[in-house]
């Protein structure tokens, strides 16, 4: 069964990637300008938008990383995913989606240009791009692990193959191909996880497995050795650190109306938390099913291998590929759009539609190669994802939040806040190895903005006031 399953899994992976390439080749003929490539012509409906929000965020960290963290730490391992990220999406849908859509931006970098000036725009983009690239590298690493397990390829070659295929179809098809793929991948993902859940529940080794998995010790959101300040720090990374990210805001900006943007995010968030409860449940009972795992991130693949027949195992493998592919292409597009639209294109003398699309494709490919390099040197999927959410986001969150809700604060205020945020995080996280690095850097960025805000008025306040 093992050899047969591996063969069919490999075939399904190759077929899945081939399907993405076909979609990209079909879609690329419809891309007339930069808005088509980056925002699918601003025509997303609620079903497409909601499924894209769900599929983009439901990546390898949710299927593999979160289940492993919960296997090892109980509910305390679910802070980042799915509970933290779902809370982040609900906040975006309820409070910010309509307002951001009304600004008619192409990228989040445009907000900084309009509200604080072009210099702040470049700094913000410089801080946002690494987060998307790190997130993409986490998915490429996960893809490589799955491909290596299903074939005779060593991990390094598997990661290289994953990177080449993902770069190719993402660069060709742009955001429209991404959204169409997300819809297909989201359906496959839901089916695959439901199949695994049902089969495992029908074959529990003992009647008290669920009770043991949800013991008093394992349903605590705080471990005994942790301080409450550390718990708050961990919750703040997914909720605050990911609120104003290019991946989710792109789906807001690509919607056909403000109401569509709001509903898409809220429906996507609801679907995310409901489907995300499947890895949570399996992670909680995992120690009873497969005890003494050295690496908890192997839980879901091992459960699938143990409990599923060949056909259903292939379905699960397709679900895992769906989770990975739907996230990595969105991350690469986010990084590429910020670099091309906000940094490179303003420097070029020729601004034709075809040249803009070409530059966007090139930047996506370049960042894909960078993500590949990071994936080769990374230790774990979950570690990469957490770092992506924390890197540079303290100042970005502060400037977006305060810049959207009030008119005081300009170039100096925003620049200082972002620099204080990233420098303090670097010192606290890498220098002092503080357990509260993100929370303290967030507080530093926020205080910096509030102190300077009364003395400066933003250059874009009139435009933002009209838009809101």
Short recap of the structure:
With 468 residues, the chain is mainly alpha-helical. 78% of the residues lie in helices and 0% in strands.
Structural description of this entry:
This protein is mainly alpha-helical. The protein has helices spanning 2-28, 34-39, 46-57, 60-73, 79-102, 108-116, 118-149, 155-202, 209-213, 228-239, 246-253, 258-289, 299-307, 310-344, 353-377, 381-390, 393-405, 411-431, 437-452, 461-467. The protein has two domains: 2-345 and 352-382, Sodium/glucose cotransporter (Up-down Bundle); 392-468, no CATH class. α3 (46-57) runs antiparallel to α11 (246-253), α5 crosses α10 (228-239) and α7 packs across α15 (353-377). The chain is globular. The relative contact order is 0.19.
Helices and strands in order, then pairings?
Blueprint (H helix, E strand, L loop, with lengths): L1 H27 L5 H6 L6 H12 L2 H14 L5 H24 L5 H9 L1 H32 L5 H48 L6 H5 L14 H12 L6 H8 L4 H32 L9 H9 L2 H35 L8 H25 L3 H10 L2 H13 L5 H21 L5 H16 L8 H7 L1
Helix pairs in contact: 1-8, 1-14, 3-8, 3-11, 3-12, 3-14, 4-12, 5-10, 5-11, 5-12, 6-7, 7-8, 7-14, 7-15, 7-16, 7-18, 8-12, 8-14, 8-15, 10-19, 11-12, 14-15, 17-18, 17-19, 18-19
Comma- or semicolon-separated keywords:
single chain; 468 residues; mainly alpha; Sodium/glucose cotransporter; 2 domains; 20 helices; 78% helix; 0% strand; globular; disordered C terminus
